[in-house]
Amino acid sequence: MENPEPLPAFRYHPDPVGTGAIVANPDQPCLGCSRIRGYIYMGPVSTEKNFILDEHLCPWCIADGSAAKRFSATFNDTGVAEGIPDAVRAEIEQRTPGYTGWQQERWMACCGDGAEFLGVAGKRELERDFQEAVAVVKKHLRDEFDLSKADAEDFFDGLSKDGEPSAYVFRCLHCKKYLAYVDEA
Ligand SMILES: [Zn+2]
Ligand SMILES: [Zn+2]
C-alpha cells in the first residue's frame, strides 16, 4: 500500500470516517483510479449504467468528480432540498460521500445552501453527540408525524443508530442550526 495521503475535504460531509462512509482499507483498489489508496467509500452509489461500484471507490475519485464523470455516478439525492443553487446540488450529488438510511436518503438544506451531514443517530447518539439536535428531532416528530408530546417522546426513545427508525443529523453551514429527519414508521 502507498502511504496514505490526507483525506480530501468534503464541505457537505465533514467527517466521513466518523460517519462510516469512508473506511480504512489497505487492500481494495479503486475502480476509478485503479490505485490502492488506503481508504474506500462504503456509502450508496447510483449509476445509470450497470457498474458495480459499491465499496470500490476511493474518496479522492469522489472528491474530484472523476468517479461521477467516468461512471455517471451520484452519491446523494438533493431532490427534496429546496432553494439551493445547481452548483451546490452538483457538488452534493456528484462529489460528496453519501450515507445509508433505512429509507430513501435525503439531503437537507438551510440558508440557501446544502447542510453538512453529521451522521446517523439513535437516541443514545443524539443525547451523547448531538445534544443540540435533540429538540430538533422531537419537534420534527411532533410536526411531521403529528405526534403528541408524549408520543414523540416514546418515538424518540425508540430511535436507534443501527436499527430502525434512525435519525439523520445535519447542521447548517451558515446559521449553525441543527437539522434532522427521522425514518417514517
Ligand atoms: Zn480512486
Ligand atoms: Zn441556516
Architecture blueprint of SSEs:
Elements: H1 16-19, E1 22-24, E2 39-41, E3 46-47, H2 59-63, H3 66-71, E4 73-74, H4 86-95, E5 109-110, E6 113-114, E7 116-121, H5 123-129, H6 131-144, H7 149-157, E8 167-171, E9 178-182
Helix pairs in contact: 5-6, 6-7
The structure holds zinc ion (2 copies).
Residues 30, 32-33, 58, 60-61 line the site of one zinc ion.
Task: Walk me through this protein's architecture.
The protein is an alpha+beta fold. It folds into two domains: 100 residues, no CATH class; 79 residues, no CATH class. Helix content is 30%, strand content 16%. The protein is built from seven helices and nine strands; from the N terminus they run αβββααβαβββαααββ. Strands 7-8-9 form a three-stranded antiparallel beta sheet. It is globular, with a radius of gyration of 17 Å. The chain binds zinc ion (2 copies).
Keywords:
7 helices; single chain; binds zinc ion; two-stranded antiparallel ribbon; 185 residues; globular; three-stranded antiparallel β-sheet; alpha+beta; 2 domains; 30% helix
Radius of gyration: 17 Å
Write down the oligomeric state. single chain
Distance between the termini: 44 Å
Principal-axes geometry comes out as globular
The major pleated sheet works out as: 3 strands, antiparallel
The helix-strand sequence is HEEEHHEHEEEHHHEE
Quick one: how many beta strands? 9
The secondary-structure class comes to: alpha+beta
Strand order of the largest sheet: 7-8-9
Q: Provide the residue-averaged pLDDT.
A: 94
Portion in strands: 15-25%
Number of helices, counting only DSSP H or I runs of 4 residues or more = 7
Total number of domains:
2
Q: Pick out the low-confidence regions.
A: none
Ligands (ions, cofactors included): zinc ion
Helix proportion range: 25-40%
